[in-house]
User: Fold this.
Amino acid sequence: MLRPLIMRLLWVFCVCAGLQAGSAALAAELRTCFTPGEDCTSLIVQQINNAKSSVLVQAYSFTSEPIIKALSQAKQRGVDVRAILDKSNEQERYSAATFLTNHGIAVLIDDKPAIAHNKVMVLDGVDVITGSFNFTKAAQERNAENVLLIKQEPQLAKAYTDNWKRRAAASRPYDDFRDKRR
Assistant:
């Protein structure tokens, strides 16, 4: 299952690099971003701001205010925003999971694996953001990270969407246990 996906991704790289001729319908766009030195947070926020119908998020660590706010604003625009977060996002203090939930975004907690270490967004069923970049301030300001944006690649986006759905089925709803202390 993974091998065909890897082969497809390699094919996309070849097409986009001009190493293989392809029709306009197959012309995916790839964009990279690296920290330190580039503003990967802004790249991600820009993509969220351009989303028209849906944003599916899978995140391990999630503390980036600009990204969290962009997701909230997308939801306010009528975009279907849903998130699956690692269980480490359930904390006694106010967290991204709490903020998203308070803004009407469905948050699930993927607590079955040791860690849900994904850093993925699928936008409008055709674009994918992935890489080592956690959606955190530290990833932008202190770490050496990478982001890969793959635009107009519905087959690859479907593979990531299918994985998102599998993880969603294995996850549970976020429970803001802070409310239970009151």
